[in-house]
Amino acid sequence: MMQNLKQLKSWVPNSSLEINNKNPLSDGSIACQIATLLNNNNRLSKYHDASSIINNPVHYFVELLGQNVIGCVGLKKEDKMDKIMHLSVVNSIRKLGIGKKLLNTVILNSSKDILYMRIRDDNVASIVLANKLGFKIIAYIPKQTYNIFTLCLFRRNNVRYKTY
User: How far apart are CA 39 and CA 104, in angstroms?
Assistant: First the structure.
């Protein structure tokens, strides 16, 4: 049913992901689909378009069904730890393990001992999934209209943290 995860390499000019030999899917098309998915599902304060995805320092991984992006997640490489961003799956096909597959892929593609992500406190499904994969809540950030948890995955036993 679903094809293997593909990494969007929009930072490589004129690259494309070969879905099949007849119809390669361009970075622009994938970036547009990622932007639509994020704008429709993630309640972000920033509106995304294909250009903002392509020019973003975040490395996106996508799950494809045919030529449609049905899920995505971003990995932002930082100095001391990596940030997982923008996990999103098409609403009509949630609860099939796509989010878990995406998160596992991004974890495997990070070489850092610590990975972190921020999740709104009303996004219970993402918080539960992150906990199942070993992430721990380390901070609670109150906002005016919503609150955010910061969750970390510590891949070394000697990293000290306090959970809340």
Answer: 23
